[in-house]
Amino acid sequence: MPYTSLPMGTRMNRRAFLAATGSAALLAACGTNAKAEPPRPGAILPGIASDPPPPPAAGGPASAAPAATPATRVVRPQGTYERTLMAGTPWATVVSVRDSGVAGNAAIVLGGVHGNEPGGWMAAEEVATWTPRTGSLLVIPRANRLAIDSFVRTFEEIGDLNRLYPGDPASALAMERMAGEITALAAEFGCSLALDMHESWAFYIDAPGTGTAALGQTITTGQGPLWPNFGPAIAGALNDGLPSHDRFIVRDGTNLGRPAASATPATTGRGRSSLSLGGHVTGLTPVLVEMGQQNQDVDRRIALHLLVARQALGMIEVL
Ligand SMILES: [Zn+2]
Description:
single chain; 319 residues; alpha/beta; 15% strand; binds zinc ion
């Protein structure tokens, strides 16, 4: 199915969104090192059927991890260039950087964190060609390049990138070192959004709560200044234009992060996914999107990822 055959949904007025979430401060703070204001409690966007999840419990993820020192948000000169993460290693991968030359938010988009989720990395390659209107657009289309080359989720000996944030430069696991480079890159650019593009097998709507194999068509938002309204706003803008089975289900990513007291390093799981990045990069809100592979061809999954990316980046005025 060609991308153009999908409805574009209702484009939310960006100023209205930013004002409603209190994130206008993100824009106002551009070019300074001022800290963004937190969202106003209870601010619900008009026209969005929002049922925001409860705030994190006391002592939860919001206060669990010390945030990095805020990066000074500079207006970078207009330009398109590449950086390389883990340069000179077998895991080296390219970061596409596009600076608009205009003050604004920076966003980082991840694809290929898992190599057997092609809708994510193929969509990310497309996003890497988009031109930001303000701020900067960073895209890592093939975060786990070796896994993509072998079309597997990952390899045990390098670790699962989406279980290893904020990373560790001294780790024996290559993907834990990669996580550290991604975290540092997001901090360096003062990113306001990390959009992580994944695929699951089944659809959540068919088997809710059954685990990571049935997360198709979900948008999950972790801790950060755009929580909790950002995910519902994306879904609200797009869902009316989608068949009911394809519609995005919004999930709260702030309650996925607390490992049980009995957790071992192998089971700390999603507490170290990209949804934890807001606890490590000041001003960043992580969003993780999963498309369903079951009975949905890859062109359709790519197109849906691109719809979400365009909507999310539009709402923070990067597009
Ligand atoms: Zn994945």
